[in-house]
């Protein structure tokens, strides 16, 4: 017949798991029998030793309680050793009322076990307090993160509801006109299509910022020059005078999440084309040994607006969503980079990324 078992909370316990209780109890019985046979008895009364007996039994039960901590090794051993030593001390105190113990026996099992047990219990208590403090700190961080997410969701809800209202109203108005005047419906439906595309862009940007902005996968070596050129081909207008100047050493790669870094370049390039026009020149270059920068020769960003433009939903363009630079800022922060906005050599906007870790060339 196997050992009995039961479930407490989510962990399964069996009688076999409580072998320390059996060991301590067996040692206690052996110690008791030895004293009763080896030492001279002294007169005593039951009430005089009853309280000490109860205390010793309670401490033996404490051994079983401490055994439930066996999975937490840093807490388990100090408490187990401490409670066992204190139990032995209490047992010896009980027998001290029944037999005359020699000095060496009282010294070993009384004067040594009591302070040693107290010391181990104190050590276990300190570790328990430290564990509780760490758990409390972790809980506070999780609570703060949940609070930030809730605030971000409220912010996104407000921005999205505001930004979606205009294209929705525009699409509805044009559809009404198209229904009333079918002969000119093509022109109105084209406007509706543009409005729907803008709504899709707003939704995509919002999801990117809310879901992926602060997350990066394990960084890997990235060739910034190659990635920047790939992103430029996607962002620039075909047959325009826009130009990308990448002055980076391909042998010096950076440690980054390629997908997130691609979003940084795509958003910055789109921002430059939108504000500086189709003839813009964008430069990507090293920033000393601390990172890299992306600059253009457009109108630039006034100093008083350089912090505001990174807020989600901020835009001064009719066709902007206000999320592009916010996404850039979130991704840089997720990498541990510092993002600063300055004026470029030609008076345009310059986005500087510092704290970028260099990776060895593969």
TrEMBL record:
Protein name: histidine kinase
Catalytic activity entry: ATP + protein L-histidine = ADP + protein N-phospho-L-histidine
E.C. code: 2.7.13.3
Record InterPro entries: HATPase_C_sf, HATPase_dom, His_kinase_dom, HisK_dim/P_dom, HisK_dim/P_sf, Sensor_HK_Regulatory, Sig_transdc_His_kin-like_C
Pfam families for the chain: HATPase_c, HisKA
Keywords, sorted A to Z: Coiled coil, Kinase, Membrane, Phosphoprotein, Transferase, Transmembrane, Transmembrane helix, Two-component regulatory system
Enzyme class, UniProt record, top EC level: transferase
Domain of life (superkingdom): Archaea
Coiled coil region boundaries: 129-156
Keyword Transmembrane helix: yes
Molecular function terms, GO-annotated: phosphorelay sensor kinase activity
Domain annotation Histidine kinase: ranges: 159-354
Ranges annotated as spanning the membrane: 18-37, 49-69, 75-95, 107-129
């Amino acid at each position: 017949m196997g050992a009995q078992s039961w479930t407490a909370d989510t962990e399964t316990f069996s009688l076999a798991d409580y072998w320390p209780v059996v060991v301590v109890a067996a040692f206690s019985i052996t110690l008791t029998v030895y004293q009763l046979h080896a030492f001279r008895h002294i007169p005593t009364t039951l009430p005089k030793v009853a309280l000490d007996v109860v205390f010793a039994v309670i401490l033996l039960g404490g051994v079983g309680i401490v055994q439930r901590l066996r999975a937490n090794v840093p807490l388990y051993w100090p408490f187990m050793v401490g409670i066992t030593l204190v139990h032995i001390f209490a047992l010896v105190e009980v027998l001290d009322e029944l037999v005359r113990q020699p000095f060496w026996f009282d010294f070993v099992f009384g004067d040594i076990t009591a302070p040693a047990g107290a010391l181990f219990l104190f050590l276990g208590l300190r570790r328990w307090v430290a564990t509780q403090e760490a758990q409390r700190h972790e809980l506070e961080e999780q609570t703060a993160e949940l609070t930030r997410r809730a605030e971000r969701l409220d912010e996104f809800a407000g921005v999205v509801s505001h930004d979606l209202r205009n294209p929705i109203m525009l699409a509805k108005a044009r559809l009404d006109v198209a229904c009333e005047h079918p002969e000119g419906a093509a022109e109105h439906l084209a406007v509706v299509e543009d409005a729907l595309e803008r709504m899709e862009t707003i939704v995509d940007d919002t999801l990117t910022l809310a879901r992926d902005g602060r997350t990066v996968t394990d960084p890997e070596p990235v060739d910034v020059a190659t990635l920047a050129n790939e992103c430029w081909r996607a962002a620039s207008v075909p047959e325009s005078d826009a130009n990308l100047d990448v002055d980076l050493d391909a042998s010096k790669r950076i440690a980054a999440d390629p997908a997130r870094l691609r979003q940084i370049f795509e958003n910055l390039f789109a921002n430059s084309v939108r504000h500086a026009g189709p003839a813009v020149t964008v430069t990507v270059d090293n920033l000393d040994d601390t990172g890299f920068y992306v600059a253009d020769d457009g109108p630039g960003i006034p100093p008083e607006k350089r912090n505001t433009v990174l807020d989600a939903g901020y835009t001064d363009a009719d066709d902007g969503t206000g999320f592009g630079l916010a996404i850039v800022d979130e991704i840089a922060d997720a990498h541990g980079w510092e993002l600063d906005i300055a004026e470029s050599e030609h008076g345009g906007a310059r986005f500087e990324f510092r704290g970028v870790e260099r990776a060895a060339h593969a």
